[in-house]
Write a structure and sequence with these properties.
heterodimer; A: alpha/beta; B: alpha/beta; 5 helices
């Protein structure tokens, strides 16, 4: 796999309000593959996600990030999305007065201008909603306005399905979900991956707990501590963390608590 | 040359009103910190007005509605304020609408007042709903550059009636002063929506006196000064009897050097037990030189009421814009969507026939 295929991050340093959070991240997410990024609270997982998406409060001080060879760090957040990056937010914003259908159409038009007529787009939307177990009445609701935690995460997954990105970063998509909702989200991610458009999507699944990985099977598992990826392994690594917690990895890596 | 007309209002009523106008302060004689307009200094001496100035057009497809009839003309407080008195003194275009008992008027009755550039018009709208009647009234003001529009709207309703009144203007650089007063009947439903998107100076007053129990009043106001526009809006809801509800929603934005002030008063009298009153005012500031002063005030003398007021004034939320941009939407498009969305819940309180035009007018200000 070459660097100009999928997401490639090298030596990424990032600070927030003058505080160093990421201290050299190296990571490659290839299309069609699932990478899990695990780590305790405060290890920098969300910072990595927001830095990649171009959040204005997150300042990259060193390193590179490319998507299919395009320099993400040189692009504004909307252009990163057009380059094929998608971020599923841990806390998606509510946008009163902006309907789900209109928002998704604007997003799809921005990312893939003119590829679908409004009628065809609506067909695609209904199909994806059906796969996610979402009622069509969702389309007339305002974005995340008064949504439950589960509904917000489902809307994030719908957006991912509609935008069909090259690489999607799912930031704690499992947080705040009960077991049933988690199972549903997990299954719907799997079914999206099985679809024609989703087959080529690379996933970076950021999670605190390994439980979502029962539904979305990772090809690679990374463990992040104190702003660095300290261990990378196969799916078994997630099981080990479930049994032993992060302390053994921390001890092995020699990272300072 | 000013002249006191001689049609629907008696000359002594007009003369008394002119006296009141000259004697009264505007009630806005203490400008806010950013407010630069002295309403008491507003002059009328340079106005070109005669009985033929301006025009009114009334579109009503229901023959049961009685036009030109207003048995309770002047029964509201509309003529008591400074500009209400001025409007009474010179009222020259009338829309007098009475909806008979039990009549349900399906299509909106549309009243359009027009003033050409430099022209003055003094509109007088009187809406009367008899017992159990139902209707929607849309009032539009089309005014040219430097026009002067000073109008009154009276709404008087009887028991169990249901009326929706919407006023909309996206005029050129005109001065537009509107005084609106309502007297809802027992167990009636009243909705007043006002949208001021045009005009160089807009002064609005909405007075609702709740004198009968069981009524439900909803007020929705939208304004959005840009360029050098000024908007000064005041709503007063007087709960004088109990068991009536009022819900006031104000959505405003300002950009360019636009300035606005909103004063929202709710008074609940000691005897008005089991009143419910809510006032919500949200303002968006979209440029460094734009200002909105928001002054909500609740005065409650009764002890068994439900009352709420809340106000927010702020800029566009950076997290929301980032979220939208992360979906590929460019910043300026995201801003437009958020601003339109901000107004949407208030726009939806307007009759369907106005909504698309309102969205376009808002969008034009942020293009």
């Amino acid at each position: 796999m070459t660097r100009d295929h999928g997401l490639a991050v090298a030596g990424l340093h990032c600070e927030v309000d003058g505080k160093q959070i990421l201290r050299g991240i190296d990571l490659a997410v290839e299309p069609g593959r699932v990478h899990a990024l695990m780590g305790p609270n405060g290890s920098g997982k969300t910072t990595l996600a927001l830095a990649l998406a171009g959040h204005p409060h997150y300042t990259v001080t060193a390193g590179t990030a490319t998507l299919d060879g395009a320099d993400l760090l040189a692009l504004s957040p909307d252009k990163r999305a057009k380059a094929g990056l998608f971020l599923s937010f841990q806390y998606p914003a509510a946008i009163p007065g902006v309907k789900v259908a209109n928002f998704l159409y604007a997003a799809r038009q921005a990312v893939r201008p003119g590829d679908l007529t409004p009628a065809k787009f609506r067909g695609l939307l209904l199909e994806k909603m059906d796969a996610l177990g979402m009622d069509p009445s969702f389309l007339g609701r305002y974005i995340n306005d008064g949504f439950s935690g589960g509904e917000k995460k489902r809307l994030e997954m719908l957006q991912m399905a509609v935008l069909a990105p090259r690489v999607a970063v799912l930031d704690e998509t499992d947080s705040g979900l009960d077991v049933d909702a988690l199972k549903h989200i997990g299954e719907s991610i799997e079914s999206l991956r099985a679809s024609e458009a989703g087959k080529e999507t690379g996933l970076l699944v950021i999670t605190h707990y390994p439980r979502i990985l029962r539904y979305v099977k990772p090809d690679v598992v990374h463990v992040m501590l104190d702003g660095r990826i300290v261990k990378t392994g196969e799916a078994e690594l997630a099981n080990r963390i479930e049994r032993e917690g992060y302390d053994t990895v921390r001890a092995e890596s020699g990272a300072v608590a | 040359m000013l002249s006191l007309g001689d049609d629907a209002l008696a000359e002594d009523v007009r003369r008394a009103a002119l006296e009141r106008f000259r004697a009264l302060p505007s009630g806005r004689e203490r400008p806010g910190r950013y407010w630069r307009v002295d309403l008491d200094a507003l002059t009328i001496d340079d106005l070109r007005i005669d009985s033929s100035s301006g025009s009114v057009e009334i579109l009503c497809s229901d023959s049961r509605v009685r036009l030109g009839e207003a048995p309770r003309l002047g029964s509201t407080s509309a003529g008591a304020s400074k500009f209400g008195a001025l409007a009474t003194a010179f009222a020259n275009r009338f829309a007098l609408v009475t909806v008979p008992a039990g009549v349900d008027v399906e299509a909106p009755i549309v009243v359009t007042y027009r003033a050409d550039a430099g022209e003055a018009v003094f509109p007088f709208t009187h809406v009367h709903l008899e017992r159990g009647a139902r209707a929607t009234i849309v009032e539009r003001i089309d005014a040219g550059k430097n026009a002067f529009v000073c109008g009154i709207m009276e709404i008087v309703t009887e028991e169990s009636s249901d009326v929706r009144v919407a006023t909309y203007q996206n005029a050129a650089d005109a001065r537009i002063l509107s005084t609106r007063a309502a007297l809802p009947g027992k167990d009636s439903t009243l909705s007043i929506s006002t949208a001021d998107l045009g005009g160089s100076l807009v002064v609005g007053e909405i007075d609702v006196a709740l004198l009968a129990t069981g009524s439900d009043t909803r007020i929705a106001s939208i304004f959005f000064p840009d360029g050098t526009q000024h908007v000064d809006l005041r709503s007063n809801i007087e709960h004088r009897v109990g068991e009536a509800t009022s819900l006031t929603t104000v959505k405003s934005a300002a950009t360019g050097r636009g300035q606005a002030r909103y004063v929202g008063n709710i008074r609940i009298a000691a005897q008005a037990q089991k009143s419910a009153a809510s006032l919500r005012d949200d303002a968006l500031i979209l440029s460094r030189n734009a200002h909105i002063d928001s002054v909500p005030a609740l005065e409650i003398a009764a002890n068994d009421v439900k009352a709420y007021h809340g106000a927010t004034v702020g800029a566009l939320d950076a997290e929301t814009l980032f979220y939208m941009m992360s979906r590929g939407i460019a910043r300026d498009a995201a801003e437009r969507m958020v601003i339109l969305g901000f107004f949407e819940s208030a726009i939806e309180q307007f009759p369907e026939m106005l909504r698309e035009e309102m969205r376009e007018a808002v969008e034009a200000k942020v293009a």
